[in-house]
From TrEMBL:
Superkingdom per UniProt: Bacteria
Gene3D superfamilies per the UniProt record, alphabetical: Tetracycline Repressor, domain 2 (1.10.357.10)
Annotated protein name in UniProt: TetR/AcrR family transcriptional regulator
Chain ranges of the HTH tetR-type domain: 22-82
InterPro entries according to UniProt: Homeodomain-like_sf, HTH-type_TetR-like_transc_reg, HTH_TetR
DNA-binding region residue numbers: 45-64
Length: 195
């Protein structure tokens, strides 16, 4: 006798409701981000993504022509969010270094995504992301050159290495104090060495 309980639907089982185009696109992007960070960008195909989402490849291709296009959309989304979050900390008077570093630390999903691939296409897209952030911070941060560029490089390096160091949880206040003193000492050294 064949067991039909595993092959037929129970009368109370619900079919997944239809998602709007915007929600489906977001669902694809979030699933891709999760797979990229778990397996590495180069280790994820459109077939993997369709299997993970339990949908057809055709559905995914309706929204994105390739995994590279999904990555580009993810970077664009994260870039806009990061700029919005950083903006209050870099405009006006002295940049709030502690808040900037805390924000970078809280952006674990973004830093993991930035460190999830090593192939040429991935590296090119990551470099574009970093260049946009750097250019934007240069335009927004009020500190004069050359210390502004030095600080930006520090912030960007923190962003790119935090995921590799598996930074988890908020830093202790004494850690931020040490980091702030290090930054202040670096600024003073740059000012003294400038002609």
């Amino acid at each position: 006798m064949i067991d039909t309980t595993t092959t037929s639907r129970s009368p109370t089982a619900r079919l997944p409701r239809r998602l709007s185009a915007e929600n489906r696109r977001e669902q694809i992007m979030q699933a891709a981000a999760r797979l990229f960070t778990e397996r590495g960008f180069e280790g994820v195909s459109m077939a993997d993504l369709s299997s993970h989402l339990q949908t057809s490849r055709a559905t995914i291709y309706t929204y994105f022509p390739s995994t590279e296009a999904i990555l580009d959309a993810l970077f664009q989304e994260r870039l806009c969010a990061l700029q919005a979050q950083l903006s209050p900390h870099v405009r006006g008077g002295q940049p709030a270094y502690r808040e900037i570093m805390a924000l970078m630390q809280s952006e674990q999903d973004t830093v993991r995504l930035l460190n999830s691939g090593g192939g040429p296409q991935f590296c090119e897209q990551r470099q574009r992301f970093v260049n946009v952030i750097r250019s934007w911070l240069l335009a927004e941060a009020p500190a004069p050159l050359p210390e502004r560029e030095w600080l930006l490089d520090l912030v960007i390096q923190f962003l790119l290495t935090a995921a590799n160091q598996q930074v988890t949880g908020p830093a202790q206040p004494t850690q931020w104090l040490v980091l702030e003193q290090f930054i202040d000492g670096g600024i003073e050294a740059v000012r003294k060495s400038a002609p």
